[in-house]
Amino acid sequence: ETGVTQTPRHLVMGMTNKKSLKCEQHLGHNAMYWYKQSAKKPLELMFVYSLEERVENNSVPSRFSPECPNSSHLFLHLHTLQPEDSALYLCASSQDQTGSYGYTFGSGTRLTVV
Amino acid sequence: GENVEQHPSTLSVQEGDSAVIKCTYSDSASNYFPWYKQELGKRPQLIIDIRSNVGEKKDQRIAVTLNKTAKHFSLHITETQPEDSAVYFCAAVRDTGRRALTFGSGTRLQVQP
């Protein structure tokens, strides 16, 4: 276990459903991230939280809503998703928001929107 | 903002050969350059990184070189083994900035036994 845990590992949801992805880190890191990984595309940064404050939002549609209640937990709330949102969603943590001490990634949630 | 380009997108080598993956970056102020390896179905993991105050760094069979003038850095894997088969991502960031890592598009390395 690398210290960053994501649940669930797999999720299938309809376009009208509401679901949440959870990420938890016990590394004492101050920054947490959501990345989207689609086939044949680079890792796309979605959100960055530093000390529980959102510091970056990369033009992500409002159907994705992040929440960071404390420095150890990060959520991604999903609603009215589209089939093109199907992807691997990776959470990562780092000592600071630049990631210049390295990221620790979670195992990801494989999301399928039907 | 930073833009990172990575080449090639796929690379196939014979076991024992060397592999080289190249990345270029756009922000001359970027000063931290990590490489991540992602095996099939697994999470990306940091394998080596370099900061702008050095030109080369080695760790057993892997090495990274940095050319600040040309704004490019490369990953070198020698004596490749089948377990080196994975997708490799480069990234860049300014460690005094407010932005997170910018990743390249990835290189799928296949080592043929």
What does this structure look like?
The complex is a heterodimer of chains A (114) and B (113). With 114 residues, chain A is mostly beta strands. Chain A contains no helices and eleven strands. In chain A, strands 2, 4, 5, 6, 9, 10 and 11 form a seven-stranded mixed β-sheet that branches. The radius of gyration of chain A is 13 Å and the shape is globular. Chain A starts with a strand and ends with a strand. The relative contact order of chain A is 0.33. Chain B has 113 residues and is an all-beta fold. Chain B is 0% helix and 54% strand. In chain B, strands 2, 4, 5, 9, 10 and 11 form a six-stranded mixed β-sheet that branches. In chain B, strands 1-3-8-7-6 form a five-stranded antiparallel β-sheet, with no helix packed on it. The N and C termini of chain B lie far apart (41 Å). The model of chain B has no long low-confidence stretch (mean pLDDT 95). Classes of the chains: A mainly beta (114), B mainly beta (113). At the A-B interface, loops of A face strand 4, strand 5 and strand 10 of B.
Distance between the termini of chain A: 31 Å
Structural class, judged by helices and strands of chain B?
Answer: mainly beta
Tell me the fraction of residues in β-strands of chain B, as a range: over 45%
Helix/strand order of chain B: EEEEEEEEEEE
Compute the number of helices of chain B.
Answer: 0
Give the assembly state of these chains. heterodimer
Average pLDDT reading of chain A? 92
Averaged pLDDT of chain B: 95
Unreliable residue stretches of chain B: none
Largest sheet of chain B: 6 strands, mixed
Number of strands of chain A: 11
Question: Which structural class is indicated by helix and strand composition of chain A?
Answer: mainly beta
Percent of residues in helices of chain A comes to: under 10%
How large is the count of helical segments of chain A? 0
SSE arrangement of chain A, N to C? EEEEEEEEEEE
| Global outline of chain A | globular
The unreliable regions of chain A are none
Q: Give the percentage of residues in beta strands of chain A.
A: over 45%
